[in-house]
Amino acid sequence: MTDGQWASLRSVVSGSSAARIAGFIVDSPWLPNWRGVSILDYFSDDEVWFGANRSVVEAFPKAIFLPGFWAEYGMCTEPSAFGARCSFPENEFPFARPSIRRLEDIDDLEEPEPSRDGLLPFALRRMLRAVPRMEAIGHRVRFSVSRGPLNIASFLMGVTDFLIALKTEPSRAHKLLRLITGFLKKWHALQRELFPSIDGIMVLDDIVGFIGEEDFREFAFPYLSDLFSPPASVKLFHNDADCSASVKYYADMGVNIYNPGIQLSLTEILGLCGGRLSLLGSIPPRDVLAVASPSEVAEAVRRQVDAIPPGARIVHSCAGGMPPGVSTESIKAFLRALE
Predict the structure, then answer these.
(1) Tens-place pLDDT, residues 265-282
(2) How many whole angstroms separate alpha carbon 80 and alpha carbon 118?
(3) What are the φ and ψ backbone dihedral angles of 300, each rounded to 5 degrees?
(4) Are 277 and 250 in contact (CB under 8 A)?
(5) Contact call for residues 149 and 227 (beta carbons, < 8 A)
(6) Which is nearest to 333 in space by CA: 281, 283, 295, 277?
(7) DSSP string of 24-75?
(8) For residue 51, how many C-alpha atoms fall within 13 Å in the half-sphere facing its CB?
(9) Residue 337: per-residue pLDDT
(10) Which fold has domain 3-338?
(11) Got the DSSP string for 86-126?
(12) How far is CA 43 from CA 50, 78, 311, in A?
């Protein structure tokens, strides 16, 4: 992200500017195939990874890409530090297999060290090598990034078993979430230490949308609040599952910009959160941005702009991250319509 883009994002999030800007979360589900390379090559080859990220910022200079030059290994990044077996097909999304077979296994878990465990040191080395080339084209590292504690727990246990554990073994569920959160705090701190240009926190946790309000308050709110507690200008939370039971708490967690799904309109979300959040969204990702014609994408953007209440702080985007299959033409139509 360039200095100008970062300033624009900060000003919209803080409410000091009402400029219309576009921002998209882009990572391995979309970027490699848009670039014409396999997902496995994107993960395993520094030159392929850097070339894809450089190409997208050069192709769409009027769009902000979040977090920008993201060194990630899909959903495998953080679970790998806990010993999860990770599979990397040639051109499909990677996945982490559950490693906690019995609830008693939680008692034996040790907190990973992000500087040396799993895939994390490889992600850090990739970023460290990339920084001089990023800065040469005017970009800097702006965010420390991670999946959230419930998301990681669901990969370590399996989604169903984790959600059942919230009800049947709440003490062990808390023990697991405390362990993961402690690890994530060190992971974010290490990123901030190595990249002094970081002034943002980005956490992604869709499992928050799988639980009701009472469970959110007990099992999500305290841990996410802890993650978002360090000072930062932009604190971005992604949950593109249902947010109706939890979004009113996000500002109290420290979040100041939220990337939702399609379950609620931006106006409905603003009402639920009392207008305390900036929003990153919320054009339907698959049914509009990925499969509709460019002219239909443009019309959807215009309808969204017309529907936004006065004073709302919006970074125009799709709901959730950029989905597979979105074309160059559709992104250009999105940006032209916003102008």
Answers:
(1) 999 999 999 999 999 999
(2) 5
(3) -65, -40
(4) yes
(5) yes
(6) 295
(7) EE--TTTHHHHHTS-HHHHHH-HHHHHHHHHHHHHH-TTEEEESSS---BTB
(8) 15
(9) 97
(10) TIM Barrel (3.20.20)
(11) EE--SSS--EEPP---SGGGGGG-----TTTSTTHHHHHHH
(12) 10, 15, 41
Beta bridge partners of 66: 25
Let me know: does 286 contact 265? Beta carbons within 8 Å.
Answer: no
Counting other chains too, the contacts that 212-218 makes at CB distance below 8 Å and 24 or more residues apart are 212/245, 213/245, 213/246, 215/166, 216/245, 216/246, 216/249, 217/249, 218/170
Both tokens of residue 283? 């054009």
Rounded Cα distance between 278 and 21, Å, is 12
Q: pTM for the complete prediction? A: 0.97
Q: Which pLDDT belongs to residue 109?
A: 96
Judge whether 239 and 264 are in contact, CB under 8 Å. no
Tell me the per-residue pLDDT of 48-90, one tens digit each, with 9 for 90 and over: 999 999 999 999 999 999 999 999 999 999 999 999 999 999 9
Domain map (residue ranges) of the chain: 3-338
The angle that helices 149-157 and 170-194 make with each other, rounded to 10 degrees, is 120
Which pLDDT score is estimated for 119?
98
State which amino acid sits at residue 282: S
Secondary structure element (H or E) that encloses residue 6, with its range: helix 3-14
What dihedral angle (degrees, nearest 10) is formed by the CA atoms of 256, 260, 265, 268? -50
pLDDT per residue over 177-230, tens digit each? 999 999 999 999 999 999 999 999 999 999 999 999 999 999 999 999 999 999
Cα separation, 300 vs 214, in Å, equals 35
